[in-house]
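Weekly puzzle thread! Below is a chain. First person to post its structure in token form gets bragging rights.
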Amino acid sequence: MKTSVVVFGSSRTPSGDPNYDLARDLGRALARRGAEVRCGGYAGVMGAVAEGAKGAGGRVVGCTLDWFDDTRTPNPHLDEVIPSPNLAGRIERLLEGTNAAIALPGGVGTLSEVFWLWTLLMHGKGMNRKLVLLGEPWRDLLEVLSRRFEVDAPIRALVDLAATAERAADLACGGPA
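Winning reply:
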């Protein structure tokens, strides 16, 4: 079975931001491992990961949201666009057929995607997907969740942390390129 990895991240991250560069590096790393990349299909982190993957010869699928038809256009690095009429459907389409998810720091939308998958994993409905959080801010969030919320060690163990794009791709794809 071919590896397919969804990448969650902000649509507002500008070119030149360290997370934009990290996302582009991640796209390249995933493509070098032969993984199909799925993303939200727009700009920011989504555009950067798509750009990196396409530049390295990978295939990229964008799962867009009908809500944005009048205000956003899909990024130009997509091989396929899968539209969705609502947020729940979009997240389901993002996850469809994937082996893993990697999240970069983002906003409320990114958090909702992460928590959606984490909840599925917690209840045994995540189809053995890996959930990898890429970047330093996630460590801080996990510390707060562990200290102040009902996120105990077994729940925390469902998530991997990665500091680099290469490490995140290794975790998601089962090893180096």
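Puzzle host: Confirmed. Bonus trivia for everyone else. The chain has one domain: 4-171.
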